[in-house]
Amino acid sequence: MSSISQAHSDAARVNGAKSHGPITPEGKARSSSNARTHGLTASRIVFLTPMEQEEYATLLHDYTSRHQPQNPEELDVFNMLIHAAWRLRNLTVAEAQLYAQAGGDPLLSEDPLIEKRAALLHRYRAEAERSYHRHLNQLKSLQNNRLYQEQFSKLLPSGAPPLANAAAFTKRTQDILRRDLDDTIKQAAHEAKSFNSQLKDVFSLFANANKGA
User: Among 13, 78, 126, 131, which one has the highest count of C-beta atoms within 10 angstroms of its own C-beta?
Assistant: First the structure.
């Protein structure tokens, strides 16, 4: 290792030894706020306390009991739904903390830092809500399709792909069958009309023949 790299390493080690984290209540609150902000944007679940981990376990249990994902695609979307739900939970906590820090509505605060954080949390909430509803709708679609395949498997061709839109396919099949049935009825009506006309001609011939006799 070069002398410069060694000096950087030594300095980092010394500074790390000196740093014991925030000491004052204000510093601790700032540190917690920063950690919370990081958790709001992290791509993985972040727990700041053991209590949060317990709350997450409860949320996961409740969502799993309700939605019961059954296959890999449903599980993937379900996990993204849980992530969005947890972000919304954390945002509610962060907004409450900011409200307490501002002593009221953060948007009415004269502190530019509080105002900036309020705007940031608002943006994070909008993103999390969009993600939540998007993944909830995706999960609904997957589960509706699975239910349709299970209940109306006889209407689907053999070897149909698992993710094929069974409802749409069945609807198209029914539309085709309905059109074919309508065409058959029209054709039968036309043939019946033609047959009736031919019968009338035959009866007319017999009638004329009898008159001549």
Answer: 78
